[in-house]
Amino acid sequence: MIDRDDILDRVKFVSKRIYGDNLHSLYLTNDANSVLNITCVIKDYGATEPLSDDAQELINGLISFVEYELLSLKDITDDKISWLKNNCDLILGKELIDVKDLSLQEIIDNAMSLDDIDEQFYNYTSYGLTGIPTDDDKRGLCRWISRNVLRTAYSIVMLREKKYVTDLESCWMGYSKYYSESSDFIKEFLNLFNNPIIDLEELSEKWTDAKDLLEGQFEDRTLD
Q: Is-above-0.70 flag for pTM?
């Protein structure tokens, strides 16, 4: 079984091989199941060369592990940019736009709500990740919910911090400045992202506690 990091390394290699200087960025949009969802942003469709036989062979080797979405900078919408910035991990290249082109409030408004995250989480767990989940599926779900907890926690303080970040450790550090009493608990999700667990019952309990905590902090947050 090829591990997640090896698959991502292959995706980066293949994308650079195929698109070269036309490649702008790669985003990991979902790793909550055994198939990784990748969004590839290129600068211009017209600058893409036809695939060589060896490039096509490289792609064929990833089909079982990756779903690949191709977007052009010319066609990508502001809503799609906001969604990528809030819900995905940049794994190669540059951020799509500077924060100054999208207000922090707009970024917050376009993020997944706690209820949306909750619904998706229980859809994954209730339906067994479209069958009997493998340990890799469970680890992917653990990373997914951990990422969302950390970014949601940071969104509570983003207007006070006056900057946008996606790095998960930076999200935790920014949150901790204002919520020291719950800092250690939220840090657990940073550890879970880096060392995911496969016990879905334990993960569900941690998520429920996090959701209850963050909902209360959202209601009481200071916006100055």
A: no
